[in-house]
Amino acid sequence: MATKQTRLIKKYPNRRLYDTQTSSYITLADVKELVLKQEEFHVVDAKSGEDLTRSILLQIILEEENTGGSPMFSHDMLTQFIRSYGSAMQGVMGNYLEKNIQAFLEIQKSFQEQSKSLFGGDNSKSQQDLWSQFMNFQGPAMQNVMNTYMEQSKKMFQQMQEQLASPTRVFSNFPFPGFPQPGDKPETPGGSEKSGGG
């Protein structure tokens, strides 16, 4: 059975997006629908072939944040993101956020599976209403689960920061031959030869 190919979208200098699969021009809203449908796609510059997928996704996020609804990224969160760029924590921060989002999605998936067992698996309007009611009821429980996870994650992150702030603690777990380790007593010149009292 042939695997479904990744959809290729080309971006032209006039900023228009061309879907090579449907042979038609599309908008950011159409790309957002591809994301919601979990369809794999790549956006490339039509002239240079440069991968622009991340740039397009960031544009979609920016539009969603400015639609007037409840934004996902607060002012404080955005400033912390900016401060992390160029620092030693940049790669760590990205991995930390990705792991936490993945944990959130796994918890959400678990709650969705519970709802399917109660209300069925179809996606009709009535089932969506039941899902909303279910989430209103289960919302506090899901929040408690996330709070517990985030508290544990916060403690682990703080411990990591403390270790990074003290290089000797970091490298104490990696002994190097010929180098004294923390807690070792310094050797006197001549070693055991002087211990006999001459």
Task: Describe the overall structure.
There is one protein chain. By secondary structure, this protein is α+β, with helices and mostly antiparallel strands. It has two domains: 1-72; 74-169, no CATH class. The protein has six helices and four strands. It has helices spanning 28-36, 53-65, 75-84, 90-119, 125-165, 167-171; strands spanning 7-11, 17-19, 24-26, 41-45. Strand 1 and strand 2 form a beta hairpin. The mean pLDDT is 76.
List its traits:
single chain; 198 residues; alpha+beta; 2 domains; four-stranded mixed beta sheet; 4 strands; 8% strand
Brief characterization of the structure:
By secondary structure, the chain is an alpha+beta fold. The protein has six helices and four strands. The protein has two domains: 72 residues; 96 residues, no CATH class.
Query: Tell me about the biggest sheet?
Result: 4 strands, mixed
Query: What are the low-pLDDT stretches, counting only 5+ consecutive residues below 50?
Result: none
Structural class: alpha+beta
What is the gyration radius calculated from CA atoms? Answer: 27 Å
Strand content: 5-15%
- Strand order within the widest beta sheet: 3-2-1-4
What does the overall shape look like?
Answer: globular
Number of strands: 4
Q: Span between N and C termini? A: 85 Å
Mean pLDDT: 76
Helix share bin: 40-55%
User: Into how many domains do the coordinates divide?
Assistant: 2
Number of helices: 6
Summarize the helix and strand pattern as letters: EEEHEHHHHH
